[in-house]
UniProtKB/TrEMBL annotation:
<dbReference type="InterPro" id="IPR029479">
    <property type="entry name" value="Nitroreductase"/>
</dbReference>
<dbReference type="GO" id="GO:0016491">
    <property type="term" value="F:oxidoreductase activity"/>
</dbReference>
<protein>
    <submittedName>
        <fullName>Nitroreductase</fullName>
    </submittedName>
</protein>
<keyword id="KW-0560">Oxidoreductase</keyword>
<dbReference type="Pfam" id="PF00881">
    <property type="entry name" value="Nitroreductase"/>
</dbReference>
<dbReference type="InterPro" id="IPR000415">
    <property type="entry name" value="Nitroreductase-like"/>
</dbReference>
<comment type="similarity">
    <text>Belongs to the nitroreductase family.</text>
</comment>
<feature type="domain" description="Nitroreductase">
    <location>
        <begin position="8"/>
        <end position="161"/>
    </location>
</feature>
Length: 186
């Protein structure tokens, strides 16, 4: 699968089969994330790979942040079951001290974002699925996983074989609606 095909056909997966992820595929996904560009090549991204069922269940519990979801009328985080049931959960962290901070822009978030796009595309290219889970209770999750102080958890990525074949993806806005040439027009 070439990169443009992977970009065009990747979908968020929230339901996984119980088939384990082969170690070589997991390593390839992590290596793709490692190869991502970063601010001054400081490589601020770090990864915690969780395969233990009890740990994944606890991570799932910590992905429901009542102050966020209750105000939106949700009784659960739509991705909670994905975190509990995926064969693997990759917790992606960033070290803000190993990236730029320019005029209030914290580039560790960009660095980690680039790395996780690589992660998700590499997973898809190998027949695996994933989804970005960005709402979680960071402090108790950091304690659960023994993440050092100062390190920020940026996202959770359940990973495994999709339970069902991918359907067509959500619609995207046409380029004419989102791209401006020369200056911002209209």
């Amino acid at each position: 699968m070439d990169v443009l095909e992977a970009i065009g056909t990747r979908r968020s997966v929230r339901k996984f089969s119980d088939r384990p992820v082969e170690p070589e595929k997991l390593r390839a996904v992590l290596d793709a994330a490692r190869l991502a560009p970063s601010w001054a090549n400081l490589q601020c991204s770090r990864y915690v790979v969780v395969e233990d069922a009890a740990m994944k269940a606890r991570i799932s519990e910590l992905s429901y942040v009542e102050s966020y979801f209750a105000t939106k009328g949700y009784k659960s985080n739509p991705a909670q079951q994905a975190l509990a049931n995926a064969p693997v959960v990759i917790v992606v962290c960033g070290d803000p001290t190993l990236s730029g901070d320019l005029r209030g822009q914290e580039y560790y978030l960009t660095d980690v974002g680039i790395a996780t796009e690589n992660l998700m595309l590499a997973a898809h290219a190998q027949g695996l699925g994933s989804v970005f889970v960005g709402v979680f209770d960071e402090e108790p999750l950091g304690e659960l996983l023994n993440i050092p102080p100062g390190m920020r958890i940026v996202g959770l990525f359940p990973l495994g074989y999709p339970l069902e074949a991918a359907k067509s993806g959500p619609s995207r806005k046409p380029l004419e609606e989102i791209v401006h040439y020369g200056t911002w027009k209209g």
